[in-house]
From TrEMBL:
It comes from Hyaloperonospora brassicae (Brassica downy mildew). One of its GO terms (cellular component) is mitochondrial [4Fe-4S] assembly complex. This is Core domain-containing protein. Belongs to the HesB/IscA family. It holds the Pfam family Fe-S_biosyn.
Length: 144
């Protein structure tokens, strides 16, 4: 079961250990953030289980991880969002919120939900601002 937690916002750049991955540039006509139908469905299912209509997925970026930055994805009550600091994206019935600082680092990315044998999680994929990442899937380094 998912738990609601307050988001932490911290953008620092620690030392880097990176591996190369292929990345494409952001198309200016593409949306700032996309939500897959699978991620939207999982958000709706989780909201129904928790009996709330205001559930959102917060995507934030913090300094850390193997490659310099890491994604932090947490479920929150959408009623407590900041109108000045947060940007809300709604697609396929799912709502994702990103603080303005983190948005600059994930602009052009897609939020998805991956289900594997040993874990299920919301993930950020296809980040055009990342030049490298690590096998964990949550850590990345920025394009200069």
């Amino acid at each position: 079961m998912f738990r609601l937690r307050p988001a932490r916002r911290l953008l620092r750049r620690p030392s880097r250990w990176t591996s190369s991955v292929a990345v494409t540039r952001h198309d200016s006509n593409a949306p700032d953030l996309s939500i897959t139908p699978v991620a939207a469905q999982k958000l709706a299912e989780t909201a129904a289980r928790q009996q709330t209509d205001s559930l959102v997925l917060r995507v934030a970026v913090e300094g850390g991880g193997c490659s310099g930055f890491k994604y932090v994805l947490e479920l929150e009550d959408g009623a407590a969002l900041s109108e000045t600091d947060d940007v809300v994206f709604e697609q396929h019935g799912g709502r994702v919120v990103v603080d303005r600082e983190s948005l600059e680092l994930v602009r052009g990315s897609t939020v998805d939900f991956e289900q594997e044998l040993i874990r299920s999680a919301f993930v950020v994929v296809d980040n055009p601002n990342a030049v490298s990442g690590c096998g964990c899937g949550t850590s990345f380094d920025l394009r200069d």
